[in-house]
Specification:
This protein is an alpha/beta fold. It contains 13 helices and 17 strands. The strands form 3 sheets. The protein has an 8-stranded mixed beta sheet with strand order 12-13-14-15-11-16-10-17. Strands 2-3-1-4-5-6 form a 6-stranded mixed beta sheet, sandwiched between helices.
Length: 484
Amino acid sequence: MRIFTASLATETNTFSPIPTGMDSFKARGYYRAGKHPDTMLQFSGPLWAARERAKAHGWTVIEGAVAGAVPAGLTTRQAYETLRDEILQDLKNAGPVDVVALGLHGAMVADGYDDCEGDLISRVRELVGPDVVVGAELDPHCHMTVLMHENADFLVCFKEYPHTDILERAYDLIDLCAAKVQGKITPALAVYDCEMISIMHTSREPMRSFVDRLLQMEQEPGILSISIAHGFPWGDVPGMGTKVLVYTDGDVARAQQLATTLGKEIIGFRDALQTPYPTTAEALQIVAKNQQYPAVLADSADNAGGGAGSDSTFVLAELIESKIRDAVLGPIWDPGAVGLCMNAGEGAVIQLRIGGKVSQASGQPVDALCVVKALRRDAYMTGLANTPSMLGDVAVVETNGITLVLTSVRNQAIGCDLFSQFGIDLAQCKFIVVKSSQHFYADFSKLAAQVIYLNTPGSVASDINTLPYKKLVYPKWPLATPAR
């Protein structure tokens, strides 16, 4: 069996002012055909799974280009078309193949392309014809479009949020594609549109039990795959929303019945999916009252993983104003401040203007006298599914009893080693502020006495009713349908 695999992945926040160009992909990971490193990247699960299965079964894997960018605003036309065409040329160069397995995100939007994944998959299908098996692994925060699922034999989403199951779902994809090539299965697909949008944390109920049942269902004879496309609220495109995908072995009616049943179940518990979002001041009052430490505060609205700048100062200013000490906060994307610290050296006392640079959503810069506690070139932290996640050059500074992790590469908080690798003992901190929406939870929840998701200003605002949608297709609970 000959398997071609490649990746092109980013999540586009159409409300973010940060453009996603070629430099964005090079900063996170861009590898030409056959140059993928000897470790799995967050966006290259299918390639890694294909490598491992090929070793066991004697298959041939042809590796195309792999590219991923930290979520941001609209992808430039030049970047998308360049990377898309490179992958298509790699596929042409591969010669005849039995399987095309792609690592995508599902919510990539470029200048002129509301549905990048649909565009890429349809072009792949046009190249290889109807008999080659085409599959893709997707982030559940995807826009599941007709163009995507009509041109793919299999689309498999991660089930977990935080996304801890990237490799497991990649194996599912490769195994399903191989089984179809071998004539063992005949996939039948049904899609149910829940006409809603929600953030679905699988770390708590009701999603925890729901996902566990999905995994059990996939062990039943005839059920090949079940995916929940949560959707990505910060992508203003027609395909945005929550959908259920069910693949059965040749039984369309069963697929339709199951997709409908599961979709209506999600609608039934959608109110329970909503997470409380107190303001920073309210969160500090909660902690002052219950005295449960360490308290992890998630600055979701400034999550680089959702396309934000990761340089907002609203929480930092509140901590300083409230005279909070024994706190850590990060990562703050501020290459200029990092450069000044690098020049000053460890132990230096330096006046810094921190954050507040990307847009109005970043707030005002904070001017502070800082002690440079640690410096590191080319640092990284443990990312999703134990993949490396780059931080770039890092400066750790302390001001007003608050320790800040400043980075030259924009990223979200994922692993506790964002702090611990620099000698910060998180167990001794009263407040741990992470610029992340949910991916931090898998690691930080192990030490947190409590986790509070904050309602703060930013490009990934928790109140989606404030977003100026123009392309969205209604109805879309909980959004009010605009007056005509």
